[in-house]
Structures are given as C-alpha cells and as structure tokens.
C-alpha cells in the first residue's frame, strides 16, 4: 500500500466535519480506516457520546477515503467528492465515547453508472459498534 | 439537541398525535458548511437524518437513539440556498422499546430524503 500521511489528500471534507484520520490498509476492494473521537467532535450528543449520525458520516468518509486513495493511485490531484445516495440496513449497537478509536472496514462493490455499493463495519477494540450498506455517488 | 438552532430552526408545526409536519429553516451560517464543502456549501445527509431524529424526539416527547435505518434515500442535493425552508413530514408508531419512524424531507420543488427506521427510547 502507498503510504498516505495526510488524509485531506483523500477526502474533500474539512473541519468541523472531517470524520476520518487515516487509511491504514487498502486492497482492490477492501480498506480499513481509523478515527479517534475527540472531545470537540461536531457530532457529540447532549450526553457526551458520539451520535449515530456521526458513525454514519464516519463510514461514508471512510468509503470516500478509499475512493480518494484509488483516484490518487490513478493520478488524480484532488480527492473526488462523494455523495450518499442511499443508506440501508444501518444498525447502531453502541455510541462511542470521546477517546475511543473507530476502526472501519469498507468493502466496495462494482461501480455501475456512477453508483457504488459499499458495506461498512465499525469496531472499537474489536467490538462492532455499527454496520451499514450504502450507495455512494462519486464525482 | 445536537443541531436545533445551529443547523436548523423550527418555524412551524402541524399535525395530531404521532403524525406531524415540522416546517424547518436550514441555517446558512451553520459552521458545518466550513467543511462540507469548503466554498461549496451542501447540507450533509447525516444532518438531515439528525433533524428527523430531533423532530421525532419533539413529537414523542422522548429521548431517542437510532437503532436501525431500514432504508434512507437521499433523492436530491439540499443546501440552504437550494432549499432555505423544508417540511419534515413525520409518522411515529410505538414498537418494542421505541418507535418505528417514517419521514420525508421535501419542499414544493422536490423531495430530498425518504426515511424508514426504528428509534429506541433512552431511559437513563
């Protein structure tokens, strides 16, 4: 795997909604990302835990980072902008707390007419906290 | 509430029981647009999902967490300039430890989101 130091080369999102720190592994159709929930995260709920939608955004940006990595390998200079088209079968098992590190495995299906179906599973120390399917449009 | 009065503001409400229509303004000065995306403000789909959840909390009078999203279709790109005001149409029905929630976000021009899922009541 090509080493990417700066995740902002892989995704177009920026603070306060940047929800991925690094891409730690990538093959043709599977990638792994890491993200530490910080105390000032945009999606911390009233009770201090990461809101469910924060998990969804993290999974979407993990897929976006994977697509950005592939684009970079193919010679692109800017990360592609991806939009969520559909979320299906999302489950939130537990909302992570600040300080916890999310590790997300993205499995990317084939692209058909600009739409890619991905599966994402987010773990904290091996425990699954959320999983989902998504359709993503990448431009 | 995570996003009320920062990302959106409720400007009207109608309906009875567990069915309601919330009229909502999308606030252009929300800090989320600094990063989504720089120079190209687009309303994050997840913020619209959170808006649905917060309307469901107001409607049911309970604190809720999203347990499952069966299906959420994002059918058009939303932003405060494309749709400064939208209607969140919401129907909740009691199921298990919470509610089955069906929702739609739309204006007169188009539908932005169609949502079906289950939310659980937090008792703590």
TrEMBL record, chain B:
**Residue intervals of the ApeI dehydratase-like domain:** 20-90
The organism encoding this protein is Phocaeicola faecium
Instruction: Give the Gene3D superfamilies listed for this entry.
Output: Hotdog Thioesterase
InterPro entries from the entry? ApeI-like (IPR054545), HotDog_dom_sf (IPR029069)
Q: Which Pfam families match?
A: ApeI-like
Q: Write the protein's name.
A: Beta-hydroxyacyl-ACP dehydratase
Upper classification of the organism = Bacteria, Pseudomonadati, Bacteroidota, Bacteroidia, Bacteroidales
- Say which domain of life the source belongs to: Bacteria
Membrane spanning stretches: none
């Amino acid at each position: 795997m090509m080493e990417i130091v700066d995740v902002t080369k892989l995704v177009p999102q920026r603070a306060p909604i940047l929800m991925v720190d690094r891409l730690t592994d990538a093959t043709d159709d599977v990638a792994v990302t890491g993200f530490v929930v910080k105390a000032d995260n945009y999606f911390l709920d009233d009770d201090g835990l990461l809101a469910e939608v924060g998990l969804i955004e993290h999974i979407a940006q993990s897929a976006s980072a994977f697509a950005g990595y592939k684009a970079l390998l193919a010679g692109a200079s800017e990360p592609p902008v991806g939009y969520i088209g559909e979320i299906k079968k999302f489950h939130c098992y537990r909302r992570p707390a600040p300080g916890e590190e999310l590790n997300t495995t993205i499995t990317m299906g084939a692209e058909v007419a600009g739409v890619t179906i991905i599966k994402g599973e987010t773990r904290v120390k091996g425990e699954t906290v959320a999983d989902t399917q998504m359709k993503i449009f990448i431009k | 509430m995570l996003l009320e009065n920062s990302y959106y503001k409720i400007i009207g409400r109608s309906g009875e029981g567990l069915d309601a229509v919330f009229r909502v303004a999308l606030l252009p000065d929300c800090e989320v647009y600094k990063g989504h995306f720089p120079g190209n403000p687009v309303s994050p789909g997840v913020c619209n999902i959170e808006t649905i959840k917060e309307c469901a909390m107001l409607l049911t009078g309970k604190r809720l967490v999203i347990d499952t999203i069966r299906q959420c279709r994002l059918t058009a790109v939303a932003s405060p300039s494309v749709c400064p005001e939208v209607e969140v149409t919401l129907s909740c029905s009691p199921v298990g430890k919470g509610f089955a929630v069906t929702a739609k976000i739309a204006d007169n021009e188009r539908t932005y989101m169609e949502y079906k899922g289950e939310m659980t009541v937090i008792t703590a």
